[in-house]
Fold these 4 entries.
Entry 1:
Amino acid sequence: MASNVFYPSLGLQLIVNFFPFIHNSLLLYKVVLLMINFLLAATFYSVLHFKLRAQPTIAAILSLLWSGSVFSLFNIAEATAAIGIPLIVYGLFNHNEKNSYKYIAIGLSISWSSHILLSTIISLFVFIYLLICFFTNKTSKKFVFLSSFKAVFFTFLLTLGTLLPLIYISATNKIKMPNMGYYQFQTWYITVQSFFTETKLIVTFLVLLFIIATIILIRDIFLGQILSLILAVFGTSAVTWEPFFKHTSLISIQIPYRLFYYFLIICLGFTIVVFATFRKSSTNSFKKILATFTFLAMTVISMTLQKDNYADIDIPGNFVVATPSKIHHHYMTGQDGYGLGSLGAFDRASVHSSDTWYLMNYSDYVPQQALANQNSSFMLSDTKGKHFIKHQLKTSTGQYIDTHSFKASYNQLSFVSTKDIDSDTIYLPVLGYQHTNISVFINHTKVSSSIENGQIVVHQRINSSDQIMIKQYMPIWEILPFIVVLATLVFLFLLR
């Protein structure tokens, strides 16, 4: 459900498009990771080679450096959003050229389709960048203003399909937001100690090394690099602004060191563009130096990814795996999904264990009415929310009835009641937002349904042999913005 109100659906759509062909969850996960990695590299390669006329070798090496750095520092949703950064960087770097705004707009639309927080940060950066360009440009202020206006206008059109559903659903439903951690907000930033001890920051050091080396080599520093490096400082302990803003909307950042990584990657994007346009970068000596550095960087990146993504090995030499028995014990002892990582790596059996998904029952972004306690972080620990996780029907008299044969896919789910229910109102164990297009079928026949208190409800008798199926469709208010997005993309691609 969170993909409807906080995490836009681009990452989910990548999974859904492959879902009909790959039924192994772990294999599907790996395919999506490879696809995102490919798109990260391919986007920047296209910018470097086809727009900046960098040689194929230089463009390929820099694209690998980019995709590896992003993948090691960002999570999946952030990495997907970063696919649009090369286009944004190119548009800003060439903001004085005709039609540069369309690259900014298309890049921002890609980011907004995957990760709200990163996209907000990037949009803030773009605004400050263009504002500085406007006030520092003494000869063509009108051109900068019109170009900036076009960038904003086309970004608005291209993000309608993402932002309109988010805003509409959020405004018409009472949604439980994540519990804000004041401790993390005030303490989780980059420090001198963590810089030299955390594995992730070794990659950060290499990225900074490349940025500094490029600045020294070219003997110049550009606005995008200056601005992103200054803003990155706000994610470190050098600037202690967090205690003064913990009761404001800025707490939605949750973890301040995100700012450091976000702006560092933006700075890397500008540095790659600058390096590619440097006239000496195409010489054989520079190619060798760049290839050697990228090889060493990719080796370090692979080492960090291996540590975080591969199973540990025990003394006899076997992989430490989270077996279904371990997961079941974890569930039976009343623990939650936060501790699953300590059980070991997940193979296909553990991923498909029902106990695994009982534990991964975060209450973030569910309708508030579905919870008895708004501070409950997990549905299973809530006296009202636990019945959804256990797939229990509820009658108008408050009786809970178990179900069986529960099956779920990306756009529908089905189950069967264990008893005959003779009640005029039956609450199904499925959450729903108001104003979404949801249909209920009993034995493949559509029945009248509604959403009450964040829960799907039917008003008729159910027999123990009845198959209940819930399907979700795109409402018209989502289809129309999508058509606008497609039309805008076609217009921008045809624009000369």
Note: The longest strand covers residues 467-473.
Entry 2:
Amino acid sequence: MATTPAFTAPSDAQDAAGNLRRFERILLPHDEIPQLVQDLLQWAQDEGLSIERGDYQADADSEGGFMRYRMSLPVRGKSTAVHRLILKALSAQKNLTLESLQFKREQVSSEVIEARIQWLAMTQMPPSWTAAGAAQPVR
């Protein structure tokens, strides 16, 4: 007599579809990018960090149907303030990742550091971009 298993493992296709839906749910809506940038700048200011001019780059992934929005923000201030900024941003924005972080200190005894924080936000594609939308700078 054959028994029916209590649990049936999902197929690879079901797993992939479920993973895709979860990924799409965390994508930041494209029109919320300016607010994300404003939040990062405000949080840096709240921590007493001075900010140089940032660089911003939008890269479309036409196959994946999403966009990688890179933000490079050079900041200057205490290392503890940089650490708090990073923790605050990552906990507040589930679609934001820390891509890289570079520190520079003029003197070993100095409390002040210069840091270049490279953020990456995964966002929805802007409605106006075509499927062939290659990397396009955003200003």
Note: The longest strand covers residues 66-78.
Entry 3:
Amino acid sequence: MTTLRAIRPYWQIPFVALLSAVLAFAGSFLVSKQYTSKTRLLIHAHDVTFLNSTGTDPSRQQPTLTDATLSQALAQTYAGVATSRTVAIAVVDRLRLDAPDTGHGPIHALEKAAALTYKCTRAFITYGYCAGVDRREKAIADVVSGADAEQLGATSGAAAGQPGSYVLEVSGSGRTGVEAMQVTNALADELVSVSAERFRTTAQAYVKALQKQVDLASVDVTSRSAAVAKYETDHGISAADAQQVLDAKSSDTLQADLRNVKADLADNQAQLASVEASIAATASTATSDQQITTGRSGTSVTTKEANPVYSSLQSQKAVLKSKVKGLQARQSQLELQIADAPPTDLNAQQARLAELLQDVDLAKGNQTALTQQLQKAQTEVAVSESELTRIDRAGVPAYPVAPKRYLYLAIGLLLGGLAGGALTWRARRRQDPNLPEPGSLEDPDRQATRELSAELSGGEHGDLSDIPEPAPSLNGHPRAGSHETLVNGSSQRPSPVDNRGGA
């Protein structure tokens, strides 16, 4: 009973807290739900063409670009594309997310009113006014804000949490689970389409540019060949003279080949000498000792096997020896060809003809190199359509990610508890106007009354805990008619009145 009497004045606190929590929890159902779905895309590691403008693999052109850096760069690039306005517009048009809302009913109307109130209140606090938003622009903004793309990383080990894979996780949101699934799948499909379209456009532009270069190289070869023919005609150079020029060119080519062979031969001989020195300093076998302990006894095992370093050096030595023998044979043949070649002395006209023929050869070499690049680019266009492929399809989420109803419940309990405490204090203040403020000192008259009751509780009057406390006056003295009267500075209790016989 004492406990119930002590907590009875505070009944408003739990009541208001529970009421506020229930209202907040019920109000959370007026907030529009938001669902999120996810899907994954695979970035082809050996066919990445998004980061360049030539339709070729940048990892082959940039050998210092590591796989981890390349995957991270591609993932960040595609994440920016996935959250772009262009992709969002394509998703809105594909799913018709800007169509008029066909929902009806009181709950739907309350949801719209709550969403509009929240949006306008936030806009007014932030910007000072609430601007109207077009339905299509709102749908595009919702897709952009709900879209996300992240690179997956390791989930365990020393590299846990560090992105380094070629898997891109795309997520999208919607007001229903089905809409979230559709938006996510549309985002992934549009991302693949954007990648393919950009690659196709860039590669085709690169092919056109190469085709122009090949055409110019062909014209150059034709013009230089015509210059050679004109020079031979103008100067009356015969076929024998032309053959002599060709022989001279052939002799010069043989001399250049001989110099290259001698250089390669010296290089391989030096490598062979280095490998032989390493073999002489390396043991052919390797010995390993193992100690096996079983209970109280121990056994030593010595293993002798072929040294892998020695075997590798022997393989290198055999390869270098074969190269040296091949270069020596080639050197001998070139020397014989040079010795059997006719004299290479040319007159002025033949020397000029040799220069013109050399220009033709350079033009033909340029034409050949450009033609090879053109064929490679055309192959890339025909084979590689996109560097992104779908791994899976997004599913329908079972639960929404917002609103967090437990947060509404917790906030309702907190605010309700504070409101209940304030109401309890106001009710007690109305009953006792002299109730001190929370944290202030107690009234002196109330303290004196408690002390007097404690002193008289052991006298003839028995328990005086039910004696009412005096009502305070403005000057701090008890009012007339109170149950206690100050007599000679002491407190006395008046005698009880006998109602049976008068005073």
Note: The beta strands are 35-43, 148-153, 163-174, 285-294, 297-306, 388-390, 485-487, 490-492.
Entry 4:
Amino acid sequence: MNKHPSAENTRDAAPVDEPKARKARPKAAKRTCIMVLGMHRSGTSALTRAINLLGAELPKDSIPADSNNANGYWEPTRLTLLNDQMLIEAGSRWDDWRPFDPDSLSASRAEFYKVEIARIIGEEYGDDALIVLKEPRISRFVPLYGAILASMNFQVRYVLTVRNPLSVIASLKKRDGMTAAFGSLLWLRYVLDAERATRGAARAFLSYESLIADWYPSIARIGETLSIGWPRTPAEAKVQIDDFLSAEHQHHLASVERLLADEAIPEWAKDTYLAVRSLEKDAHDQEALARLDQIKAGFDAGTRQFGAACILELNARQAAFTGTVSALENRNAEKDGAINVLADDGASLKAQVEALAQRESAQGQLLVERDKEISRLTAQKKVHKTQSDALARQLIELEREAVLEREALLHLEGRLQKAQRQVVDLEQEREFFLKKQEERISGVAEEYKEREEFLLDEIRKMHRGNSGNFTSLIYSVFSFFKR
């Protein structure tokens, strides 16, 4: 795990109320838990994933991969937080190379952690028959977890992983800035405690170097040693495990020769590594076991004399460092506040700039539209000018025609006036003629009246005479009309 939470954080991460007692369940069939033990950065994650690919179930909520372990940790997040909380509450921590004493917890708190561990395991794995559990801190309190799992009807099978201390120390230095001396002591604590706590139990040893060099026989040997029937055979899982354990994921490789030649590494660490490698070949190697007993006795005695002073000094320095960090964080918080104000101002200015940019964009669009309209109107103006020129030419032609028509009209008006004068003259002549005719007719009428009266008078004369001479009468009438 990359980051190790503080006491406050881990305390908050786990429930604080005492859990309620559970009802008894009917006795179920035995289940198997493969518990992977070993020091941080020792290949426990790689082994756990390989065992999972063979069919053992992982927890539902695992710590996600990060820059320190791109392939994943495969360990339950909540158990990691709870274990950190328990260590801190007992006056220890994950990087404490002193033995962990569960009795430093009160009876009620110890019971609390037992119930919580059982609850989380139950929630993470459900009713799975074969599970794999890995959390490096458990290496320091194996009996606690062993008893809890047994109470949950699990038969526990242990796989102890070990890795060259030089490789582990190099990884811890890169991740945590840890010195070689401190890293060696921490490596010893995890390896020695896990080995001693699992003696007499069903267990197998596997070095990270063997796992990477040729995992197939190593995994097969673990299955045989622990009497585990893999749901998927190594042959069936070979392609996936090969891909996962590819050589490109190996970092901080170190040989045994380099380890033995490095004077900065304590002899205890060198001998412990060689002894566990021997147990990898023969789990009952008495010479290796005796050597580990000697080392652990000496290491425990040394930690009783010097461990408290070192860890207390480390804690005091860390507290001072934490205080300094806290002060810096407060200053940073103040600066962050100022930065946030500036950021808000910047955001406001940015919003204004964006608004102006939008307005400018809108204005630019309007200018584009205006230019288009100007172009359209210019083109329309040209068309109108062409039409206007044509109309002007037509107007000139019409004006010329109008002048001609006016001239023709004036000519016609002259003719009309002349005709009207002629009409007047003719009308006068007609009236004169008519007057003359009337006068003539009137004269003729009077003449005829006179002649009619003369004739009638002559006729009366004839009647008054003695008939007269008819011929003489006719001659008289004829002569009268002849006049």
Note: The two ends are 171 Å apart (CA to CA).
